[in-house]
Amino acid sequence: MADSIRDLLEMSLQDTYSAETQILDALPKMQEAASSPKLKQAFQEHLEVTQRQVERLEQVCQQLGMEPGGETCEAMEGLVEEGEELMEELEQGPVLDAALIGAAQKVEHYEMAAYGTLTAMLKAMGEAKCADLMAQTLKEEKDTDELLTEIAEGEVNPAAMQQMPANDQSASRGVA
């Protein structure tokens, strides 16, 4: 139970650490399921970035005398499970790529909320160095989200539209 901001911070750090370690397990599966070379590359790069983010969380915990492990991030479990279901239900190709981007962006938005909160708590506690580390991770999460949007808009979504039957395409444009 959290009785202080420090307790809440520790719970939040542990929850975020759990989320990141779950992402480390999920990203290789997403990379394998993707068909777009740009998306495969984005997942590979984000795997490397996520490894550094886990190290940053460990560093912050060490500086604060806290254990990174402990809490399980149930929200991330749900998001990862959702992505796994998409990989089971959809055939490899542009539609699955679009679904994977959507699933990955849900993860990114969750992480942006988590790192924004951690940064604010650390600043309030006067832990500027730790806050800067979490702000660096927050920027990386935002950058990944923007990259995924670029891949979706520039390549994946147009390719997925090409797979739609002609009557569905006209309906999606509002043509009767």
Automatic annotation (TrEMBL):
Keyword terms: Coiled coil
CDD domains linked to this entry: YciF
Chain intervals for the UniProt region annotation (Disordered): 155-176
Bias (Polar residues): 164-176
SUPFAM superfamilies (alphabetical): Ferritin-like
Entry superkingdom: Bacteria
Keyword Membrane: no
Pfam family, any one: DUF892
Entry coiled-coil feature ranges: 40-93
Presence of keyword Amino-acid biosynthesis: no
Protein name, UniProt field: Ferritin-like domain-containing protein
